[in-house]
Write a structure and sequence with these properties.
Blueprint (H helix, E strand, L loop, with lengths): L1 E4 L6 E4 L3 E5 L2 E5 L12 H18 L5 H8 L3 H8 L6 H8 L9 H4 L7 H8 L7
Antiparallel strand pairs: 1-2, 3-4
C-alpha cells in the first residue's frame, strides 16, 4: 500500500496493489500476500452439490421426474435440467470445483451451455490437464 499527496496538496491518493479475477460472473479482488482475502465464491460448488442431491432424489424414486423435481423446488424445468447436467462432469473436474481450483473460464455461465459428455473432451474444452494414470 502506498499513500501520497496530490499535486495540489488537497487530496491523499492511496494505492493498493490488487488483482481482479472473474469467478462465477462476479469479480473477486485478489489481495496481495499477507493480507486477508475476500470470501471465496462457491457458486459452482453449491450447484454441483445441489445437482448430485437432485440426482439421488431421482435415482431413489423419491422424485418421479425432472419435471416433478422442478415443480417441487419451484424452479423452471430448463434451469433444473442445466443444474442436473453438472452430474455429468468428470470426477476430477468436480473435485477441482469443490476445491475452488477450476479454471477461470469455468463459470456457471459457461457450464449452462451444452458441454461434451466425454470426460477427456471436457478437459480439453476447459484447458484442464489430462488425468495421470
Amino acid at each position: 500500500m502506498k499513500a501520497e499527496l496530490s499535486k495540489d496538496g488537497k487530496e491523499i491518493i492511496v494505492t493498493i496493489p490488487v488483482c481482479l479475477k472473474r469467478r462465477g460472473g462476479r469479480k473477486l479482488i485478489i489481495a496481495p500476500e499477507g493480507t486477508e482475502l475476500p470470501p471465496r465464491d462457491d457458486t459452482l460448488a453449491r450447484l454441483v452439490a445441489k445437482a448430485h442431491k437432485w440426482l439421488r432424489l431421482l435415482e431413489s424414486g423419491k422424485v418421479a421426474s425432472i419435471s416433478a423435481l422442478a415443480e417441487q423446488e419451484k424452479l423452471d424445468l430448463s434451469y433444473a435440467s442445466r443444474v442436473l447436467n453438472l452430474t455429468l462432469l468428470a470426477p476430477d473436474i468436480v473435485e477441482a470445483i469443490l476445491d475452488d481450483r477450476q479454471p477461470d473460464v469455468m463459470t456457471w455461465r459457461e457450464l449452462r451451455k451444452p458441454f461434451p459428455m466425454e470426460w477427456e473432451k471436457q478437459r480439453e474444452r476447459w484447458g484442464i490437464p489430462p488425468r495421470q494414470a
